[in-house]
Amino acid sequence: MENKLFFALILAVLFSAVFASQHWHSLSAKSDFLEFYLASFDSTAVSSQKSCFTVSFNSEKPVLVNFRAETGGNALFSEAFQINGLKAKQYCFNPSELTAGQNTILLSANNNVLFYHVDNGNSIGKKTIVLSADSAVQDYQIDWLKAFFGILCIALILGILYAIIPASFSSIQKACISIAGFSAMLVINFFALNLLGLANFFGIALLAASEIVLAFAFLKTRKKEQAFRKKPQFESFQDWIPFVIIIFTAVFFHFFTSTNLTYFNSFYERSTAVVTQNNGLALNDPTSYLGERPFAFIPGYFMLEASISQITGLQSEALFALMLAFAGLLFTFAVLFAAEAIGLEKHKGMLFLVLAANAFIFNFLIFTPRHLISFSLLLIAFAVLLRFKNWIAAGIILGIAGFVQVPLLLVFPLLCVFASRKIDFAGLAKSFIAGLAVFAVLFLPNFLKYGLPSFAAPEDWGYLLSLPFNFVFFDLAIPIFVLLIFSLRELYCTLRKNQSAGFSSFQKKLVIGIVLGIALEMLVSYRANVFTAFLIAVLAADWVLENQFWKQKEAIIAAFVLIAGFIFIMSFLPQAVIPSQLEKASEFLGQHSKASDNILADPFYGHTVEYLSQRKVLADLWVEYANSEKLNDSYNFLKTGRPEILEKYGIDFVINNKNTVFENAIGKNPTKLLEFPELNKVYDNGLVFVHQVPQ
Known about the structure:
This protein is of the alpha+beta class. The protein has helices at residues 2-21, 144-164, 171-196, 201-221, 241-252, 265-278, 300-312, 316-342, 348-356, 359-367, 369-388, 391-404, 408-419, 425-450, 458-461, 469-497, 505-523, 529-546, 552-572, 580-591, 603-613, 628-640, 643-649, and strands at 35-42, 44-45, 51-71, 74-93, 101-109, 112-120, 128-130, 598-601, 616-617, 653-657, 660-664, 667-670, 680-684, 688-692. The chain has 23 helices and 14 strands.
């Protein structure tokens, strides 16, 4: 019965997430900005023919447009009209309105401004620029039959793995290990198949089927376990809240957002698409750094997601939704397993709540399955070592976690030292070495092809990025607020009973670790945030456990405080997603440029532009093996507008924020209006500009 419930949970959550993705953003507020762009224009004029241009206006809400066209201060057209949706209009005027030589046609629609250049009298014929080409924007349709059987296959595999695990394991441990084992299996399978050039649907399906047959054979021949297993106890409603949160974030959250894309998950999803279409790892990234950059980013997540894409046939938002649900389930069981391993069974729900209330962690839950999977595997490796003293299994899982996100390899020993009540230094050393060895084997092909990683601007965008105190405080504000409540409650009890509960030795070690974690975030790398967040959650749960005065009603109050915290986080996290203006501008490029065109984007926008427009970008923020010259030239052009930079790389379009250059991850550099008079400004939506380079 227990196996069937686990299978049903997996199947229901995964399929519901995919189905819901078809209705994402349906309850979000409509965008209130106006898109204004040029579809075509005459770049040269002759006296015998009228000079024309076609402009388009687009708005999700009804809006009154005040349109004006002028040149040299002289009005060509002026009118007002109502639009609701897309409206295109063509205007033509006599070349006699122009002066001899170069002219600038200035177009305005409310506060949006476009301009283009037309040469009058220096050509024997009229030349028209048409900004419409082989569109890269495709409407993906789900093959529901294949998707259902693919998800059913995943649920069956997980169910079989769950059943194979000995009965001496708790239900949480079995669920956690089965999902982690499946993830590791897919990564290792893809790694091996990629070396053989067989990383396609048939290769993955054949290998997975063979492993399932072997698993069935093992299941049938395995002797019955005689060990008694105590069922996991869910002491109160708070122990069920993790599942409510995961179902909400995986299935319903994106109904209320304008987009599910962030500046970095667009890179992860695009890279998976490259791997899937290529049936293996590519040699170069086809759009990053003009298609010249090695496809050398640590590929563990791409291997996992591409395998699931091959099995289910899912792509785009539907695949992302499936991965979000998959990662959420893994994270839930991983946190509960880690809580059990530490000895916090009775308050594992509280530990989950405080951990998820961390801004970065909650961001993972709703936007970044890659980070969520790597962090979950880290917690599982920690729990396996702590609970079962199995350094080999812990090392393998740790190696896979590092192959998804490298910095977590270094977080592991810190976690073991500060989050465990009793440290097994020998087991820690052996599991850490095993993890490094597994990672080294998986990383070896990259090393042989590309060498050790080089980094562009690591202090601004890479692993060495540190956060100022106010950023760290915002990240930890809600868990710290919960700890403040506990502190006040302890002070109250101390005054009433005339005695202090005090800190235990374990709690003192946690406090030292928290201080160390905050220092690492501020001075070395913000990637220590998962370590700090977990220690605060453990301290909160352990504090509740140690103090007998904690009552059920107070647990309910704390839970409601955390729920209020989640609402607070959700009010700020939409700032992490890409603005709808960038999404629309990127889609404009995909629809109104050629596949061979080169784009210069603010590198902060690079991943998103590549993903949505499917065009080559001069520089983005994938800093490993990056070309520093291309990255610096992108910033230099945005700040100086020097035309030789565009000529150097054969740039056809420039896309940028209207007045901001994003040169680092934690701050903005507002500047003057970023218009480039020598170019043709062909798109404006109030936030993002697109300029076309005259040919």
